[in-house]
Specification:
Number of helices: 17
Radius of gyration: 24 Å
Distance between the termini: 51 Å
Bound molecules: NADP nicotinamide-adenine-dinucleotide phosphate
Oligomer: single chain
Strand content: 25-35%
């Protein structure tokens, strides 16, 4: 008996999943021993599904057709967004269907409720494609590294941002042009706000941290900054000091709790994540026994994401998905946890102070940092990057690299530094890995 499948939403990913089910069934069956049968494609725009090569008899604009079909065991939710996706997933579980989704937004906000509904219904809710596109990171966290206490998850999980940052770093392209190029290449959403403001990466971090640390992650617990406020000058300094700027999603199990953040971060050029270019994603996971492990691949795009969606469907067909969802504490018995606010997160920082090129300024900056217990690893003044002379004198960039300190200490020091009469613009602060 084949496993019957209904696809809800025939956009970029839905069309690729349909293509694979219709075209690649021989490969899928040879590799897995399972037969997956496309039975329904639910799409408002029937022409869109037809254009994707789906036979007319499989296309419908009403979900009930799939719910009423006893030979459809899996519903793949690929419409995106919160509603009606949430209601339709709940409806599918209630009707006794397993659900596969790529919707990280839905999982980050309603994951706990949906997993509880899956448990109640005795069905699987699988979401490999929700983080890192084709990368089997959920598999790694819930199977490959299952015997490990996981202390850290660090990822480049948004292909649009990584593409933009790569273009800015390697081609000196201005931010706006690089973003336009990402849109033209099909990496960015039509409205790329959630990409560039870090929201999409935060959704993925919520999903990954929940599985890695076995805790409920309230979305507000994630500190977030995007690439939309970065300045070209800082990418130049990153290059000069041996770093590459990446938008990193970081989950750390620290002494006092769990620290979750998404922010542009300077990554040492020799670090493996620095080599992740263009629209690729990579996620590093550190376990107490495994040490650091790294997972790399295409973070977006129709076929790469469809590959992960179908891996979930095969887990359902093989019977393993239902058991995992029912038994793994990371899916069902998550613990409450303490999350550290930004002021308690410990990290190294790059600070760029725009200061008058006057005697005594460097000593004042060093004094303020020291008063807040911030140890300076390096401090350099860059006159050649000076902006045009102001009425008060020449302005230069003073770059400070700190040792590890808390976000709170840095915030307090910067408040004092930016209030100095010699400081001409708000100081830029970027985390350093
Ligand atoms: N694109 C990627 O590379 C990627 C990678 C990983 C995960 N994902 C996730 O995968 C999901 C789908 O993404 P996508 O890029 O394929 O989106 P998309 O291209 O916008 O496709 C969504 C499709 O669903 C249709 N739809 C929306 N509401 C519907 C409803 N109520 N009933 C029937 N059809 C409906 C849309 O039709 P209309 O156009 O008429 O609204 C559209 O055809 C999202 O959760 C996304 O975050 C995407």
């Amino acid at each position: 008996m084949p496993t019957g499948i209904a696809i809800l939403g025939c956009g970029t990913i839905g069309a690729s999943v349909a293509t694979m089910l219709l075209r690649d069934h021989a490969i899928i069956t040879r590799r897995s021993g399972q037969r997956l049968q496309l039975r329904h494609v639910i799409e408002r725009d029937i022409a869109k599904a037809r254009d994707a090569g789906v036979p007319r008899r499989l296309i419908s604009d009403t979900f009930q057709t799939a719910l009423d079909d006893p030979d459809t065991q899996i519903v793949i939710e690929l419409i995106g967004g919160l509603e009606p996706a949430r209601s339709l997933v709940l409806q599918a579980l209630k009707a006794g269907k397993h659900v596969v989704t790529a919707n990280k937004y839905l999982l980050a906000i309603h994951g706990t409720e949906l997993l509880a509904a899956a448990r109640k219904a005795g069905r699987a809710l699988m979401f490999e494609a929700s983080c890192g596109g084709t990368i089997p990171i959920i598999l790694a966290l819930t199977r490959g590294l299952l015997a490990n206490d996981i202390s850290r998850v660090v990822g480049i999980v948004n292909g649009t941002c990584n593409y933009v940052l790569t273009q800015m770093t390697e081609q000196n392209e201005p931010y706006a042009d690089a973003l336009k190029a990402a849109q033209a290449a099909g990496f960015a959403e039509r409205d790329p706000t959630f990409d560039v403001n870090g929201m999409d990466s935060a959704h993925k971090l919520a999903v990954l941290a929940g599985l890695a640390f076995g805790v409920n992650v309230p979305f507000e617990a994630i500190e977030r900054a995007g690439i939309d406020t970065l300045q070209d000058e800082d990418l130049g300094f990153a290059r000069e000091f041996g770093y590459v700027c990446k938008l990193l999603a970081i989950g750390d199990k620290a002494d006092g709790g769990i620290a979750l953040s998404v922010s542009p971060t300077f990554v040492p050029r020799e670090h493996m994540l620095a080599a992740v270019r263009g629209s690729f994603n990579a996620i590093s996971v550190t376990g107490h026994a495994s040490g650091e492990t790294l997972y790399y691949g295409r973070g977006a795009g129709g076929m790469p994401t469809a590959s992960a969606v179908l891996a979930d469907c095969l887990d359902v067909a093989l019977g393993s998905a239902e058991r995992l969802i029912a038994q793994l504490p990371a899916f069902q018995k998550r613990r409450p946890a303490k999350f550290l606010p930004a002021r308690q997160i410990v990290a190294r920082y790059y600070l760029r102070v725009t200061a008058l090129d006057a005697p005594g300024v460097l000593a004042k900056l060093a004094g303020i940092l020291s008063n807040h217990g911030i140890s300076v690893a390096g401090l350099t003044q860059h006159e050649r990057r000076a902006t045009p002379a102001t009425a008060a004198g020449t302005v230069a960039a003073v770059v400070v690299m700190t040792h590890e300190t808390t976000g709170g200490a840095v915030a307090k020091a910067l408040k004092e530094i930016d209030a100095l009469p010699e400081v001409a613009a708000p100081t830029v602060r970027i985390r350093v890995l």
